[in-house]
Amino acid sequence: MRSNIWFQKVLYGSYCLVFIVKPRNETVTDLHGMLLRAGFAASDPKDLVHSGFDIVARRDQVILVIKVVTNANSLNEEMLTGMKTLSNAVRGSAILIALKSGTEPIEDGVVYTRTGIPMISLGTLRDLIEDGIPPIVYAASGGFYVEVDSEVLRKARDGGLSLGDIAEMAGVTRRTIKMYEDGMSAKLDVALRIEKGLGKEIILPLDPLSCRGVDDSPGHPEEFHGLAGEIFLRLSHIGYNVNPAARCPFDGVATDKDVVLLAGVDQKRPGLDRRARAISVLSRVLEKHSVIFVDRLGEKLNLEGTPLVCTSELQKARDRKKVMDLIEERV
Predict the structure, then answer these.
(1) In whole angstroms, what is the distance from residue 254 CA to residue 235 CA?
(2) How many CA atoms lie within 13 A of 259 on its CB side?
(3) Helix (H) or strand (E) run with residue 216 in it
(4) Fewer CB within 10 Å, N side or C side of the chain?
(5) Phi and psi dihedrals of 123, rounded to 5?
(6) Predicted TM-score of the model (pTM)
(7) Average per-residue pLDDT for the chain
(8) Are 233 and 221 in contact (CB under 8 A)?
């Protein structure tokens, strides 16, 4: 039985609801607890306070990079670069949890998008990961849409219904029904009328977690400057694909076919201990390697769980294996 609020509005008419928006911090806390209950390894939000995302979580092959926002209208492309970089490097899914968009609430069961990232409510994510109930409606220009099971429509026509019969029950043209058969999405109210007329469900579930990142983008070591520029240029020369990471605890991501390396650089900015702890947390949750490069190595070979490698050691490394040997012996 359909229980989404948009089905209720379409079937039973409009009504007035009062929405109470939780504080953002409370939503982040609820999200963290929900992920742990669902069997995810999840970073503690307190460790990623100054990052462009709030929580990173992993369960088997599913990796989520999640940001919670009070109002979706406050988002812009620059704010989301960090989570895109990380999700792309680890082949994870970037997800936005929003409380409202402008003055309107984010509806449960509806998938929105911002700059190419799926955006849903906390309730939608809860239904999906705790109960296995996927959303079925997505928001786009002009309203709310659903994916249509074209096979059900074709079978209905094989059973004796014509394009005109289905078009009449849907309130659209025969050409539109043919386009649904060819894979076009349908307006929610139209799909519901077809379901009612056929007595069969034609609406397909959506998977907002299926938008996986890929790590085949070319590296851009020239975007780094100073000490970071020297380090990432060297990593590039020995075969890593290197990309900058804005709004992340680390400064860049170095990858090859076997390794994802979250790499920070000590550029004498305050808060290195905090950054090292955050990098270490991400490394453990994601099961990826991490390192902080320093210009001078003291007695410590590890800071808050993140290995330290001196720039002179990096310069002497002839290949990627030597770099990984240094990192793995200091974990």
Answers:
(1) 7
(2) 22
(3) none
(4) N
(5) -65, -35
(6) 0.87
(7) 89
(8) yes
